[in-house]
Amino acid sequence: MVVRKPHEGKLGLLFFPAFDWAISPTHPEREERLLYTRDQIVEEGVLDLDEIVEYAPRQATAKEIARAHICVPDVAAQATEAHRVAAGGAIVLADAWMKGEVANGFAIIRPPGHHAMRVVHGNRGFCNVHNEAVMVAHLRKTYGIRRVAIVDTDVHHGDGTQDMFYHDPDVLVIGLHQDGRTLYPGTGFVDELGGPGAFARNLNVPLPPGAGDAELLYVLENLISPVLEDFQPEVVINSAGQDNHYSDPLAMMRVSAQGYARLNAGLAPDLAVLEGGYAIQSALPYVNLGIILAMAGLDTSYIREPDYDPEALQSSPRHMDVVKETVDLLRAIWEQPARMRGRFYPDLNGDTYSREKRIFYDTDNIVEMQEETVRLCDGCPGWLRLDSRARGGDFGRQHIWSISIPLAACPHCADEARDQYRAMVRNPKSPYDWIYLQDGPADLFSCYDVAAGREQVLR
Amino acid sequence: MADILIGVDVGGTFTDAVAVRKGAVIAETKVPTESEDLERSLLSALEGVLTDIAPDDVARVSFSTTLITNLLAQGHVPDVALLLIPGPGLDPASYRLPGRAWVVSGTIDFRGREVMPLNAEEVGAALKEIYDAGYRRLAVVGKFSSRNPHHEKQIAAWATSLYSDWQVRAGHTVSGQLNFPRRAVATALTLVVEAPYRAFFNHLCEVLAERGLTCPIVILKADGGTLPLLAAEKAPLQSIFSGPAASTMGALALRPKGTTSVVVDIGGTTTDLALILDGTPLLASRGAVLEGLRLPTRAFAVRSLPVGGDHTAALEGGAVALKPTRAGMAACLGGPEPTLTDALCYLGYADVGDPALARRALESLGAPDAVAKTLAAQALSRIESGIAAMFETWQREPVYRLWQLRQKGLRRPDVLVGVGAAAASLVPLLAQRLGARALIPSYAPVANALGAAVARSTYTTTVRIDTERRTLEVAETGLVEALPSGRMTLDGARKLAHDCMTRQGVDLGLPGVAEDVAEVLAEQFNIVEGWQTLGKIFDIQLERRCGLVEGWVQAS
Fold first, then answer.
1. Which end of chain A has the smaller Cβ count within 10 Å, N or C?
2. Which residues between 344 and 403 in chain A have a beta carbon less than 8 angstroms from any beta carbon of chain B?
3. Is the Cβ pair A26, B286 closer than 8 Å?
4. Which regions of B77-232 does DSSP assign to beta strands (E)?
5. May I ask the CATH architecture of the domain A11-337?
6. What is the pTM of this model?
7. Residue B109 and residue A42: Cβ atoms within 8 Å?
8. Structural domains in chain B?
9. What is the pLDDT of residue A399?
């Protein structure tokens, strides 16, 4: 099954297992997570194949991270060396792909990133820095890429990805994950469709626990492929989580290495970035190998897990019916977004839209309350303003205010946002600890320390 | 007192020999290589340096030869059959192997656990088919056999009990590094070369003994270290590419300490580049490559460029161009066509041949001055971009740990060390372009033999300990043994690794050298299944790095 046109040329592989970094000694996100994957890849001789070229990572700069994130209080506090190398690895591969050195790229990196949201108060879902978002910001700034599609196949809803791009009409986010009623982070439902200015640009396919290869491939053929065909992105990114695997200890899905290989052969992503996956012995060595060979255009039929039993992993009509219903619904919304938009956002009046969010950081036990306001503009995605209050974690109570100007903002919205930032910095009665400006068009990232009365700018 | 070190390098064109005493070269010779009779070339060079030396004063003789390459060129690789136990993964038919392969079922995983046993009937049928097809040499290679050699051992035992006239080699005895296809290639090639290699050196030793030379005889390996002959015979592939290793070690001996140097060996048809970073020659990250066949052998990362003194110049669309072809000697030496050497001779850069002949040859292409300058400039920019590409490749070399990434940084060469015939003329110009210092060592013409003479022994011990399976493996020897009982700590694992290294040193004929080792790696990983910690994996790698024998005085 070939759904997108396969690539011609080499696969760029960037492998950074961070053998000397862990969240904590027994945490699933620990040193040996990719040890067996490394052993399998090296023993197979994959890195010697003419179809594959390996790259070394570099550290992402503070500015490269600030293009995607508002780190509280600053980038240094949230992005450790390991986070910077993982994000930098994704950037290295994106550069190689843009320069035409490789036909596609797979970054097997850790730590992962897809639960990290725009504002970062700490670690949630094992993530601090959103590797794909940092990579997208780099692609947009450096090469002028605008239309991006991110397909997230991690079993946990990529709520960080959703948050990052919720109001961006140029980024299509499609998430396939175990139903949020049964798994962390408890979100990712069909009705989370994108902000009023980016409606139907966020498509969630919650999968019933127990769904497997057949359901995954059904979604690919009947939703992802036709939607990508309509959207015509300049780059397709796969957030390649591997915890949909039947042996994953944290989830309840039944996807096999063969399923992952066929998904990647059909999706043919330009760039894939590893996310979760914690069956480090029974799944990861085989799933990673499957993705590598599929992306390199090689035969994957000889890959099988030691306990692979296709009979036991047969699809059941019960699961398939649920998936078909979801796909039909999303297809209808995708095809007629204008009609549906009015039903989702019935009382839009004025030139802004606001909503409130409560965000829990499971790893660091932080609770964040956020008020999000987006400027509704006919000519651009509009600025995004956040008021975020966090308690718990290393920095105690934090109350921050931020305004972000997307790269594609019109001059009017950009000036409006800059004025608001200046006014907020000058306001002597500001209740905030930190005030931020993410100025995409000017490529300036400012942070104002209210107590010290000092501004720091990443230029 | 025996304190003289002798080095002999048998190259493609010349065989060099040097004798070194107390850090100084006391004799050197150069004779043409007779590729049909390497032994004669070798003995004649040796005799050249031994004229004024008593055999009893010789402490060691080191050889670097093209023997392996010659044997493989003549050898009949198709005589070797491969029996593979690949388990799941890549399509086994996609491997590029030097011989016909049969595949049988059976699986060992990355931890060395048996996932699927061998099928005795299937193996028996395959062995019969291979034997009936006329093969008498068999390489048995399984995926992850260095983690658990059980399947390989079992098949090898069956094969030899069924057919007594078979020469069988199991993959784990050839290479314990992870990389199944490279292990398969090396196992097959070892079967091709091991008997003639042993015969060659046994005979050579007899001849040397007849002449009173009873000192230790060592072979230079591709990683720039020496190995006693007896150990080298068991793993002959290690001495492949000893030529480039010798030239790099020669440059290491002759260049100032501690610098980042590029060794530029400009010969007749190629320019070989090697990189010395802070005094350590760079190794190829995954092993040597021989004519497209990838080997697990540790070798210096030598980059060979098609730029040489014998390369001819011709007109191409009205412009002068250096072509990567050889028509014979340079015109200034009586050859048929204008060459790079002629350009260098005419410009006065090279003190070789007759400038009048060079001028006449260059005139056939245009104004000799302009032609010569164009040719020299073309050669220089090709070598320059070769050096840049080599640094870039090194930068791109993957790293898997944060500390390794920290060590990387942008670097530029401080010193260019010129070796080989045309080096003296081009290397100073090249250094000028790169803003580095040029160094043409006084013994540059015999640098290879010198490198062999003063290289010290090297070896590596890579130990993996798995406390759940209670196993200890040594990658280099293929040893897999039971772990002593008791709790294991990182320091305990280090101690076990040191013990393994000491034992390995004794087996290699290098007792006592395990004292001087560097710890490349000492890591521990928890083995967690579900939410339970079931054990630990320790990876320890110890290395006796390449270097120079004690007493050799480097320039400062």
1. C
2. none
3. no
4. 80-85, 100-103, 107-108, 114-116, 137-142, 167-170, 217-220, 226-228
5. 3-Layer(aba) Sandwich (3.40)
6. 0.90
7. no
8. 74-189 (3.40.50), 303-449 (no CATH), 459-544 (no CATH)
9. 96
